[in-house]
Design brief:
296 residues, alpha/beta, Rossmann fold, 2 domains, five-stranded parallel β-sheet, 43% helix, globular
């Protein structure tokens, strides 16, 4: 299996005139990318590189995660193939919160890097909100490359608009999870399901060789979010996925307790997942991954 290798400086040059150029790029990131001469490399047939720090310190905030990923891109490395505590000096003391546009720009740069260096490596893409954003990269299947295109707080509308940012990649599978933020913000079922259906249609049109995997909306423990409504949305989502010839991955039944709420053992705050929650998700993701691989 070939290595992923692309000059990181070329990424910044190419982005000056591409389809997402309307997104403001942080000046400092642009300058650093233009200066770097290192290669963006990551074998897709090995485990992520081990951590060499004595204390396994991880990013705990969105600003820290952002700076870690900026540092990885500056170094010409694929974030999802690195130890989760990589580039600690670059992010451990950061406090400044990046904007939505800055996050989107960074994800688009990562996507461009993967597109230019993917070679013959297989690729899977995670798309969604903070639940997918914080999926531990060291728990992802290691026989392919992974591109994480999730953003904290994003809605189905936001995700739908961002699909073009990785349109130049060649994924074998795309995993979608979105909708809970829409429910929190008062979006209608029609809007949520309509956006998700458009995602499936658009991804199938742009990536005809990719298997589209639609993951159920997870339950929560929030009193502001109706568990019954989440269940009903998922029933309709499963039906739409079948109509669109997409694979529906039922996570709701795995994560919900008898009342239809997110099991306490899986969450940090009633919405987001703890390590056990992500391990449970990883198990289901692995099953879908195997199913897709067998169907190739």
């Amino acid at each position: 299996m070939s290595e992923l290798s692309v000059p990181a400086a070329a990424i910044a040059d190419r982005f000056a005139s591409d389809s997402v150029s309307s997104i403001a790029q942080p000046q400092r990131l642009q300058a650093d990318l233009a200066r770097t001469q290192t290669l963006f490399r990551s074998p897709a047939n090995v485990q992520p590189e081990p951590s060499f720090t004595q204390e396994f310190a991880l990013p705990r905030s969105g600003s820290q995660l952002y700076q870690q990923r900026v540092a990885a891109l500056r170094a010409g490395r694929l974030f999802t193939r690195l130890p989760m505590d990589s580039f600690r000096q670059a992010w451990s003391r950061t406090r400044q919160q990046p904007s939505y546009r800055e996050w989107r720009r960074l994800l688009a740069l990562e996507a461009r890097a993967v597109a230019r260096g993917q070679g013959r490596n297989r690729l899977a893409v995670l798309v969604g909100d903070s639940l997918s954003l914080w999926f531990p990269s060291d728990r992802l299947p290691t026989d392919q490359l992974w591109l994480n295109q999730a953003m904290s707080g994003d809605t189905t509308r936001g995700v739908l608009q961002r699909l073009r940012d990785f349109a130049h990649t060649r994924p074998d599978a795309i995993y979608i999870m979105a909708g809970v933020n829409d429910v929190k913000r008062g979006a209608s079922d029609r809007e949520i399901l309509g956006n998700l259906q458009q995602m499936m249609q658009r991804l199938q049109r742009v990536h005809p060789k990719a298997r589209i995997v639609v993951q159920s909306i997870l339950p929560t423990r929030s009193s502001a979010i109706s568990s019954q409504r989440i269940w009903q949305l998922n029933q309709q989502l499963a039906s739409i996925a079948q109509q669109q010839n997409a694979l529906y991955l039922d996570l709701f039944s795995q994560f919900a307790d008898e009342a239809g709420q997110l099991q306490q053992a899986y969450t940090t705050d009633g919405v987001h997942l703890n390590p056990l929650g992500y391990e449970t998700w990883r198990s289901r993701l692995e099953q879908a991954h195997i199913e897709i691989a067998q169907g190739r």
